[in-house]
Design brief:
heterodimer, A: alpha+beta, 4 domains, five-stranded antiparallel β-sheet, 18 helices, 13 strands, about 65% helix, disordered N terminus, B: alpha/beta, D-Maltodextrin-Binding Protein, domain 2, seven-stranded mixed β-sheet, two-stranded parallel ribbon, 11 strands, elongated
């Protein structure tokens, strides 16, 4: 920037000293240097944000595009089949170089000693014991893309790359003619229906039986605690349990028999896959998530695979320790926690600000409170996490357990991290934002309006309720939007007070009391951390990190956009009615 | 630890179905059979090395008992004992045995010791970048690389790859160190076995997860670090290790782990609160049975660890009074 200013000064200095001085003052008074630095700062900020978004989106959006499968035959005769993942330049060692043909030696020498190599995603972890392999270009005899190779996504063990050998329907072996063949598609659809039926039985009927049985057991335990083991009430409760158990056991047996029958059918419908080297693997048809002939896809089919992967990602539960499947529980957990937080933070923040601004006598005490609130916003978030764990979970939750759920101890109900405690912790974290924004908004309501209202005979509360608050609402909404955005993206304190790696059970289900605020939950932010740093297969986890990040950004944008629309509606409503 | 390991070598003697590629579980392990009326919630707090494995077990167990809720938290083995003492978790997966202080604290609260189950075998591997040509390291060298105390008797502090015999562009390059954070059981175990309890150098970059160590090494050509062998990716390689200078080096694989040749092999544990003489209630008992069954040990392979031999499973189930 100074260089720019100098070039402008140059002609002035050569002409006359006095004019130069005048011009220099001129520049400063026009604020030129400040303008350049402000504009520069803005530009850098925008470039950084756009760069970040471009990185995340280009990686995240491309993840689900089906890639071709390349068969690489090595000069030593080894055959590798896989999706090319990425390539890089590297320096082969002297020994490697010495073993090469003179032609390759010359080529590498021309490239300053560098050669190219490509990372292939092999799949078939259960057969190979590895998922990825680097293949240097100089070790390759030929590349091929045979059309019969199929990329199979399985429910377990990750993807399989190879061919379909044969499949059985109800124990009878069928010849495989193609993925699109009616028999094959029907077998797959049937297997899926069966898996869904099994799931429904297990989650629904068997789950209900188990739930009721647990409730009955807890009742007995409750009586035991209140009346003692020798009392008549305990005896009666136990008899009741025995009686109910018989009926429940009957229902349980019936449902299990159904499941067993379905499982038996399932075992008779299998799919035999063969990898490129000929080794075979037989899986039940129901373990087949998706299969496509990677090298023989039309554009429409590619788009189909792409969107079906997104659909699975958004609506399914995670599989294989979170590295595959979907993130629905995490989306649900993030949204539920954020909404619950808003429900707590909005009334608290607004009431506090109202009192501070409208009722409290402005003095030292109020100034002190205000400074404290502002300081709260600067406390590291992990400190809130520790507080939430110590106070909410252990003290509050522990007392609730001792009072209301003694029959479940030593298993904690509220005495451990959970959805409610997380929402409360985040409310503490975000309440200063709402207070400050609300106070500003209240202060911005013109004095004349309050005076007018009071002069008409309205009480103070009526003035606040009907005149001040509605006009301050857009400002209050801004505070809530900021709080939500901060809350939805915060992870560190949540790790202490209720976010877990796996909790596919949602906090809302069909069992009384339907909403289970004590349950731990999954969170998109934590999911990113977990898949990125904790999964066994770091390479395969990376694309999932980007996809999840895209999703989290989209979710936060969506929530904010909704709130902004609401705010602008509010603004419009009162725009005409001001003086 | 070593005494502990002798039992593994004996037990594994009978079961040597280890091929170079895919591992197999001991065929003598029992198939898991589901039983009725198992419901409730389980919570596990502890090792992050075992985090994925616990998740896989939870998924498998959840298939048998769809209404059981299992929550898993894994921030390091050090978080398991407090959670178990506080009663917030039923299971405490740990990648190292409990320290005597931790056992004492537990005993003070409950009047008996926690029960340890050996659920998997893991080799700690020393990883280097895939382009690193190093052939072999002794624990003495590893100690001199990672520790400032050099309790294993290394003569000089090893700071560059040249001191380990590498030539060319490697010779003058400093070694960049990666390791785990101090709450991790891997951190403690490596310190104990590979470094004779000496302190780590300050230059070790502490990572929040086993996989983070491997990713760090993958992107740093001159790096070395330690993590579970199962976290290996195509971008890193494991260095064969020998117990002493001049001794034979062994690759980090299941065969060498079972034979007791690979010097830093360990059991992975699940700790639980079980009153001596009393069977644990059905929910926990079934989970333990599942973990130590054929199906549970398949999960161990899936997560890159080595399954336990059936003799050890039987032993540990007997401690709990389960068959």
């Amino acid at each position: 920037m100074s260089a720019m200013a100098d070039t402008i000064h140059m002609p002035a200095e050569t002409s006359a000293m006095s004019t130069a001085t005048v011009r220099r003052t001129d520049m400063r008074s026009r604020g030129e240097p400040a303008l350049w630095s402000l504009g520069g700062a803005l530009a850098i900020g925008i470039i950084m944000i756009l760069g970040f978004l471009a990185l995340v989106f280009s990686n995240g959006v491309a993840t689900f595009i089906p890639k071709p499968i390349i068969v690489v035959t090595g000069i030593d005769g080894t055959v590798t089949a896989g999706e090319p993942f990425r390539s890089e330049l590297f320096k082969p060692t002297a020994e490697e170089l010495a073993a090469l043909s003179p032609e390759w030696q010359a080529r590498i020498k021309d490239a300053n000693g560098y050669a190219n190599r490509t990372l292939y995603r092999l799949g078939n972890f259960d057969i190979y014991g590895e998922d990825f392999r680097w293949v240097p270009d100089f070790a390759v005899a030929k590349f091929e893309q045979p059309k019969n190779l199929i990329f199979v996504e399985r429910a377990e063990w990750g993807p399989f790359v190879g061919t379909v050998k044969s499949f059985t329907i109800d124990g009878a072996e069928q010849a495989f003619t193609g993925l699109g063949a009616t028999a094959f598609e029907k077998a797959h659809a049937d297997a899926r229906d069966r898996a869904a039926a099994i799931r429904k039985l297990e989650r629904g009927q068997i789950g209900a039986v188990n739930h009721e049985l647990e409730q009955e057991r807890l009742k007995v335990r409750k009586v035991e605690i209140s009346a003692g083991k020798t009392s008549a009430a305990y005896k009666a409760a136990q008899d009741n349990l025995a009686e109910v158990s018989v009926d429940l056991q009957r229902r349980y047996d019936a449902a299990t028999a159904d499941v067993t029958k379905l499982r038996e059918v399932d075992a008779r419908n299998t799919l035999t896959l063969a990898e490129i080297g000929g080794r075979e693997k037989t899986i039940p048809f129901s373990a087949l998530v998706r299969a496509y002939a990677a090298n023989d896809l039309s554009l429409a089919q590619k788009v189909g695979v792409y969107f079906s992967r997104w659909a699975e990602f958004l609506s399914d539960e995670p599989r294989e320790a979170n590295t595959e499947g979907g993130v629905f529980p995490a989306i649900f957990g993030t949204a539920a926690m954020t909404l619950l937080m808003v429900l707590v933070v909005a009334p608290f923040g607004i009431l506090t600000a109202l009192y501070l601004r409208e009722y409290a006598k402005q003095g030292r005490l109020v100034a002190f409170v205000r400074i404290s609130v502002n300081n709260l916003a600067g406390v590291p978030s992990i400190v809130y996490g520790v507080f939430g764990l110590g106070f909410f979970a252990y003290v509050l939750g522990g007392s609730i357990d001792a009072l209301f759920y003694p029959e479940r101890l030593p298993n904690p109900t509220f005495g451990t991290g959970g959805l409610l405690w997380s929402a409360l912790t985040l409310s503490l974290l975000t309440v200063p934002v709402v207070i400050v924004a609300t106070e500003e908004a209240l202060a911005a309501v013109p004095r004349s309006m309050r005076e007018g209202s009071l002069a008409c005979g309205a009480s103070k509360w009526q003035t606040i309720r009907y005149i001040v608050l509605p006009r301050a609402m857009p400002g209050v909404m801004t505070g809530i939007i900021l709080a939500m955005a901060r809350g939805a993206g915060e992870v560190a304190p949540l790790m202490l007070v209720g976010v877990v790696k796996l909790a596919p059970e949602l906090p809302i289900d069909g069992f009384f009391p339907y909403v289970h605020l004590e349950r731990s939950f999954m969170h998109l932010g934590f999911h990113i951390f977990d898949v990125g740093f904790q999964s066994r297969n770091a390479e395969a986890g990376k694309p999932m990190v980007f996809v999840t990040t895209v999703l989290l950004i989209a979710l936060v944008t969506l929530v904010n956009a909704t709130a902004i629309i609401v705010r602008s509606r509010l603004k419009k409503r009162f725009a005409g009615s001001q003086f | 630890m070593l005494k502990n390991f002798a039992s593994l070598v004996v037990a594994a003697g009978a079961f040597a179905a280890v091929s170079a590629h895919a591992l197999e579980v001991d065929p003598k392990l029992k198939d898991y059979k589901k039983s009725a009326g198992v419901e409730g919630a389980l919570k596990s707090v502890g090792s992050d090395t075992l985090n994925n494995l616990m998740t896989l077990w939870a998924e498998g167990f959840g298939k048998e008992y769809p209404s059981v809720r299992i929550e898993i938290e894994g921030k390091g083995s050090g978080t398991a004992p407090p959670a178990m003492i506080g009663g917030t978790a039923q299971f405490g997966p740990m990648s190292r045995p409990m320290k005597s202080g931790e056992v004492d604290d537990f005993e003070k609260k409950y009047g008996y010791k926690p029960t340890a189950l050996r659920v998997a075998v893991d080799s700690l591997a020393v990883f280097v970048n895939k382009d690193n040509p190093i052939k072999c390291l002794s624990l003495t060298q590893v100690d001199a690389i990672f520790s400032r105390a050099r309790k294993k008797g290394g003569k000089e502090d090893i700071k560059t790859w040249g001191q380990l015999g590498l030539t060319g562009e490697w010779a003058s390059k400093p070694i960049s160190l990666y390791g785990r954070n101090s709450a991790s059981g891997t951190y403690g175990y490596f310190k104990e076995v590979a470094m004779g309890d000496g302190d780590y150098k300050d230059s070790v970059k502490e990572q929040p997860g086993s996989s983070a160590v491997v990713q760090g090494i993958a992107s740093d050509k001159f790096a070395i670090g330690y993590s579970g062998e199962g976290y290996k990716t195509a971008d890193v390689r494991t260095v064969p290790l020998s117990a002493k200078d001049g001794a034979t080096c062994y690759e980090a694989n299941a065969e060498n782990a079972y034979a007791g040749d690979y010097p830093i092999t360990r059991f992975l544990y699940i700790y639980m609160n079980a009153k001596p003489g009393a069977k644990p209630e059905p929910l926990r008992a079934e989970f333990v049975k599942y973990v130590l069954s054929k199906q549970g040990q398949m999960g161990v392979i899936k997560d890159g660890f080595y399954p336990i031999p059936s003799a050890i499973a039987v032993q540990d189930l007997k401690v709990l009074g389960l068959e």
